[in-house]
Amino acid sequence: MLEIRDFIIYFAFHFKPMKQFPRFLGMLLITSSAVSSTYAQTAETALTQWMEGNFKQAKNTAADAIAADKNNALAYLVHSGGLLFEFNATAAQADVEKAIKLSPNNALFQAQLAECYKAQSNMPQAKKQAEKAIGLLRSPKTGMEYFMRASMENIQGKPDEALADFTKALEMNPRYVRAYAKRAGLYFDKNQMDLAMADLSKAIDINARYGYPYYLRGLIYHNQQQYDQAIAEYTKNIKCDANSGDAYFNRAVIYRIQKKYDLAIADYNKVLELTPKDADVYGNRGNIYYDQQKYDLAMADYNKAIELNPAKASYYASRGNVYRTKQQIDLAVKDHNKAIELDPKYSYAYQTRGEDYYSSKEDDKAMVDFKRSVELDPHSSYGYLFMGFVHHNKQQYNDAIACYTKAIEYNPNNLDAYNNRAAVYDALGNTKQANLDRKKYSDLGGTITASGNSGKKILYPGSTFDPAVAKAALSRGLATIKGRACSKYDGLRFDAAGAKVILMPVTPYLDEWYKLREKKESKTTWVYMSDEAYKYRIEAVADAEGRFVFEGLKPGKYFVQVIHNFNQLKTAKVYNGSDTYQNGPVMQTTNYYYLQDYTVERSARFEKFVEIDEESETKKITLTSGLIKSCAL
Question: Does the keyword Oxidoreductase apply (predicted)?
C-alpha cells in the first residue's frame, strides 16, 4: 500500500504536502493457537471486533482478557493492535513481545512485530521481520493467514502479491473490513479508483463507524480535485475518530486551496495538539501565513519546521521565499542552495532560486534554473511561466509565447500566463488573440482596468535574436565601407554633418525585422528590434561633409542606416505695411516688405544593404533621399 507521506499540490508557487495513509493501518488478526482456556472466548470476541474495525472496543475487550489471564497471548496481540491505532508504537511492541514470549513460532505475533517496526519508521527491521513471518506462512490455509501474508508482502513492497492474498482472504471471509480497506489502498496506488471506491463502500456497509475508509475516500476525491467531496469524507473520518490528525491535516490543505485560511489554520492547530512535533504542520501553516502576507509568522513556522526536520528541502525553499520577499536575496539564495543540496532533483527549489536571480535581474542565471526546473518536472506550469518572463524581457516573443502556452497547458487557471501572453501578442500585432487572452484573464478573476494610449502601436519581430551569429559577423576583417550622407530640399544639398551612422550585420533576425517594418510601419505603427539585437552594431559620426568610414569588416552583408536631423535655414519676405498716395488721376499704393530668416525642422532616414564579397574590398556608398550627384564620394 502507498506509504508516501507527502502529496504535492501546486498553488501560488508553494508546495502543499498532503498526508496520505496513516503511519499504521492496523491488522485483522485471528489465530488457531491456544490461549488461556478460561478467557479464550473473550479474546475471540476482541478479534471479531478488531476484524470489523472496532479498534477501541477490541483494545478494551483484550484488556479485560489480560486482566483475567496474564498468559493470554492472543489478548496481548489484539491489545497491541489497539495501541498502534492510537499511535503508541512503543507500548504496542511491548505487548506483542509478550505474546511472542508465550508463543515464539506464532506467525501472527511475528507479523504484528513487523507492523510495530513499521509504525516506528524502522523499515529495514520491519522488512526483515516480515520476511520471517512470511516464512511461517508458506502454505496459508485460512482467510486470516492470507490476510497476514498480504500485510507482510505489502511491507516488503510486493503490491501484486499482496493484492492477490487480500483478495483470497476476502473470498474466505467477506466481512474482513480491514482487508477491504487495505486492498482499496493497493487499488489506489494502481490508480484503479473505481475498484478502490467499491471496496471502501463495502467496508463502510459492514461498519459505518470505522473512520479509515472515509479517510481513503477523501484522498481519492482530493487527488481528483473534488474538494468539497473530499472535505466531507475527511470530516466523517474525524467524527469517527477525533484524533485522526491526518484527516485534519488534509482538510487544511484543501481549505488553503479554497482560500479559507482561518479554517485551515484551525485544523493545523488541532494537528499540533495531537502531534506537537510534526514538522509538516509548521511547514504548511507557514505557507498559509505566506499567502496572507504575514511574513514574520511564516518565517517563525518555517524556522520551527527546520528545527524539527533539518533534512527536508521544502522547508528551506519556503523560507527562502520569505527572505526574497524581504529583499534579503543573499539569504534567499543560501536557503534555496540548501534545498537543492538536500534534494538535487527537487524541481521547485530550482524554480525558487531562479526567482531569486530573476528578482536581481540576473536573467541568464535565472533561465538556467527555470530550465532545470521543467526538466525535472515537465508539467511545471510556473517553471514555464518564469521562462516566459525571461524571454519576454529579452523581447524573444515567439519563445515567450511558447512558454506561456505551456504554462497554460499544465495549469489552465494560470492568470499570469494569460495576461503576459496577451502583452506579447500585442507586441506582435495580434490584437485579436491578445484580447481573447485578456478576456480569459478577466474571467478567471484577474483585474483589468480601463486605459488609454496615444493610438500608436509598437511591433517587434517574433523570432529570437542569436547574438553568436551577430558577434561572429562583426569579428575583425580587412574590408572597408566608405560613404557619404546628404539630404536634398528645395534643390539644395545638405550634408549630414555630425549625424550618427550605424552598421549592423544582416542576420535572420534583422531580415525579419526589416520585412516586418516594410509591411507594417505607418504613421500609427512603429516597428522596433529587440534591445539585445540593437547592441550588435558599429557606430560612426559623419564629418562636416557627411563622410564616414567603417573599417576592419569581414566579407558579408551589412545594413547601414543614418537618421539625418537638421534645421534648414530659410528666408521669407514679411509684409510691413503700405503707403497710398494720389499720383495725378491715379491712386497708387506701395507695399513695404522686409526679409526674415526662419528654420524648418528636417528629418530623413537613409538606409542601404551593402554586400562585401572580398577580404580586402573597399565599398563606396552614398546615403541620400534620391540622386544627388554632388553627394558622391
Answer: no
